[in-house]
Amino acid sequence: MPQFAPLKNDTFLRALLRQPTEYTPVWLMRQAGRYLPEYRATRAIGGSFMGLATNPDLATEVTLQPIDRYPLDAAILFSDILTVPDAMGLGLRFVEGEGPKFDRPLRTEEDVLALRAPEPGSLDYVFKAVTQIRTELNGRVPLIGFSGSPWTLACYMVEGEGSREFHTIKKMLYSRPDLMHRLLSINAQSVADYLNAQIDAGAQAVMVFDSWGGALADGAFQEFSLQYMRQVVSLLKREKDGVKIPAIVFTKGGGHWAEEIAATGADAIGLDWTANLGKIRALVGDKVALQGNLDPAILFAEPDQIRAEVVKVLNAYGRHDTGHVFNLGHGISQFTPPESVAAMVDAVHSHSRTLRNT
Ligand code: CP3
Question: Is 5 part of a structural domain of the chain?
Fold first, then answer.
């Protein structure tokens, strides 16, 4: 096991653990990606998204690009949530302009009964990338590992691609809840193993992306998404070599379930821009840190407007010494002007410092 350099900036980890920080740490979901010209240049060499993700040298290079360009407080592994179902044999393809597709989606009882956890070794390229990124970060900022939630992975596994309505998986959920639960149990164990292997490889915090939990009805969310995230969190290694490994759970569209999500045992919950951070904090107290929640569309406005909206989010959170990790409410758009991110990061750091002196 390699010895990693000591961490120079642990602001992000301290905020997640509700310990005091001098300013509010910030990172962006999808911070390495097509809005950066340097990413597009590396992607041209790698050939495709999976070409980058499966090559640890290239995955390391693109993970570090936003860290070199902006004073961000965390790096996130360059990969995708769909690597896990791909390793289960579903055949992942990224179709240019259309997004991800699976060659062998799970549609029948036989498909679900034949599903197995990923073969050992099939995700080693991810763990190699984690170790290489952590080494090359050289302690600048912590590295976040991640996975999709059992439910969100199931959405792609059953639909076979992205969806607006989720008719195929909801039909399975309501007509064959037994099959749905079988699939989700396999996913939960696979996700926990995958995150624990990232922690062993060097990830210093982990995040579960429940991008489609918000598509579920109240009641169905608790039964088919939340229950399995609770299981994942309970199986995670929360400490490595005496250092805590915080876990973040992000259900997009899940603000109205914040208290229940906070009770999963995670250290922090992610929120999209429809939530009010102050109201959520009043409900959950200091039990968890909050991550979010600027509308990514604000990055299409002018720098002064971006600053004003950043101030609103910081002020909405209300408490100024800890427990808030600034982020967007969802991934950054590929059409975002890179200068907008510079204005946003600067506004978070500078305004949050002034709040601590008041
Ligand atoms: O945040 C980061 O910088 C880390 C990298 C990361 C990617 N995907 C890279 C990526 C993370 C954390 C993800 C998570 C992910 N992937 C989610 C959950 C978060 C969310 O956005 O809700 C989901 C639903 C996916 C599935 C996925 N991957 C879709 C729908 C797409 C196509 C949409 C698009 O933007 O093209 C991807 C591809 C993908 N994953 C890209 C990147 C940078 C685009 C890659 C490219 O074409 O070069």
Answer: no
